[in-house]
Design goal:
203 residues, mainly beta, Lipoxygenase-1, five-stranded antiparallel β-sheet, four-stranded antiparallel β-sheet, 2 helices, 8% helix
Amino acid sequence: MNHNFPAPKKFQVIKNHNLLIFIYDNRFTLKSFYVTFILNNIMPITQIIVDIKTGDAPGADADGPVYLGVGPREFRLDRPGNQFERNKLDQFVLGNGGPGGAANIKNPNENDPQQPIAMEGPDVLGSPFGSGGVPTFLPTPPYNVYIRYESNTKWLVETVSVKLIGALASFPVFNVTLGVKNGITPPGIWLGKDYGKFLYLQP
């Protein structure tokens, strides 16, 4: 597809991680998309906010560990007290200093997106640079954000939302709402050893 853009009036240079990026500062509409996409792909992920609603059906409660996978890492979703109970919404905050406030999970230092391995945009969204280091500005649809349930018993998941908070801005929200469009009764999907352990999310 060919795009005929007006000649740029001036440009701004952004240098980060040894990559020199030119952002044209004129009035065509893709400027803001370029800026947002580049920021998403260079800034660190400082906090993760996860909202999970358990479905409303007999035996819907989870009885086993639940993990969040993001890019190269997995995190245990476990707070003090009960969670993943029938028809209830649970929120988990990983990492400190973002809009979610302080981390509310057990072992917060080991389940922090900034330690011991600091995560960045390319870990989740992929790199915007193709072969030869040429910007493509076309993100590959990611399938590397998921939840995993390890148990011999089943668990009914109705909705999942994963918000990745960056140092400068928020990333696209990864989420799934099950049963609303497809008329599933009860709404949700069963996870467990007899059903499947993983549920992958997309923005």
